[in-house]
Amino acid sequence: MLQKMNLLVVEDDQDLGEMIADSLKDLFQTVEFTTNFDTAVGILSDLKPDVIVTDQNIEGGFGIALVAHARKGNVNTVAIVQTGNPSLELQTEAARLGSVEIIEKPFDAQLLHLRVSQLIIAESMRRKMDAEQKPELRN
Fold it and tell me: Does the pTM of the predicted model rise above 0.90?
């Protein structure tokens, strides 16, 4: 059974952000949604999201910068960055960060749900393997 994880959705389009959060809520223990960078940074320290779904261009900053900031506090965070302009620079930064997928807008809600589900499964498997490789401390 998969461990329920936490999701942060950051999208400057209120309606789209609410649709994304609502469509993914069944996959997560906690879902937080905001429309701007600064609020998202504040949420990061409290929520420590396992998954971030963010628009690249958000009020006050960029989605890829938010992911980089999140990684400083939680190295296990995986992300999907949505953009209408999947530039080589953005793709290079996503590759450098690792575990960041770029989805071009407009996107299909079912595709997003599938990609997020795949990220959750991969991350759950990675965590399970990490836990099995670490020997338990015994006194």
Answer: no
Contact by Cβ (8 Å): 50, 123: yes
Overall residue count recorded for the chain in this entry: 139
In 41-108, at which residue ranges do the beta strands (DSSP E only) sit? 51-55, 57-58, 61-62, 78-83, 100-104
Measured CA to CA in angstroms, residue 9 lies from 68, 118, 130 at distances of 15, 17, 27
DSSP 36: B
End-to-end CA distance of the chain: 30
pLDDT in tens, 91-122: 999 999 988 999 998 888 888 888 898 888 88
